Amino acid sequence: MAAYTPVEAIELASRTGAKKGYMRPEAVFLSAISAGCLLSFASASFLIITTSPQLQEDAPGLLKMLGALIFPFGLVIITITGADLCTASFMYTTLAVLHRRLSLPRMLLHWVLTFWGNLAGALIVVILIFGAGGVFAKDPYRSHVAEFATGKQVTPEFHQVFLRGVGCNWLVALGLYLSLFSRDVVGKVVGLWWPVFAFVLCGMDHVVANMFFMPMALWIGETPGLTLGLYIWKGIVPALIGNIVGGSVFVAGYYWFVYLRNGQDDGSGVLVDGVGYQGTSSKRVGTDTSC
């Protein structure tokens, strides 16, 4: 069989959430730093490829499509290497809690560690690589960073950032779920790539990607109205809440309700659902956290 079924894939997602929830806190934090760094490289690549005043005027949709095609490599590398994004944790660990494989305190601890680790990783890249390195020091890149931050952060209202955050992590978490259908790396890449492509193309708000975009604009200092306080209140807060809702409710909650709510975890980690599927045998996640 070339791919897992939807029930098997969501079972794997549940085991992944439990595995992540039982990781050592210092390992989670270091893994999250790595994820923040990797996504920052993807965010920087997006800014560079979308820097074209002529195309911004004549073909803005085409320019967004080019950026959306390149950005997913960051999520792919993070997923393949096992690094920890808080936005992925919102889906994986919520699912494990709903499936009674992980406690609520462990889930919340994982969220806190991944969020701050992602922020640390993003700031490391902003300051040491792109800031001190002067990658965006000259026009047209410098002005494009400021223009992008204005449209992404200064202009939108709080509720708009929140709703775009919901849509963003709905698609990101869906991509993570689809990647689990495949038994090989190529299939995982394809499953992840296109939902991430869609969220970037539609201009949704990913709280970790914004950890690069907004600090980079603050470093350059040419974005009217953008301050640290504005970024925290109208950037981090609504995007974070929206990402939590998108990943935990629209993906983890929905697919748990559809595929796992009427199932049964018999204590061995073997899932038997209401339609007779029996998952692959494993020890109970939490004592043996292999996926």
From TrEMBL:
Q: Report the GO molecular function annotations.
A: high-affinity secondary active nitrite transmembrane transporter activity
| One of the protein's GO biological processes | nitrite transport
Q: How does it sit in the membrane?
A: Multi-pass membrane protein
Question: Which domain of life does this protein belong to?
Answer: Eukaryota
Q: InterPro entries this protein is in?
A: Aquaporin-like, For/NO2_transpt
Where it sits in the cell: the answer is: Membrane
Membrane spanning segments where?
27-49, 69-98, 110-137, 161-180, 192-220, 232-257
Keywords carried by this UniProt record: Membrane, Transmembrane, Transmembrane helix, Transport
Pfam families the UniProt entry points to: Form_Nir_trans
The family this protein is said to belong to: Belongs to the FNT transporter (TC 1.A.16) family.
Q: Under what name is this protein listed?
A: Formate/nitrite transporter
What is the source species?
A: Microdochium trichocladiopsis
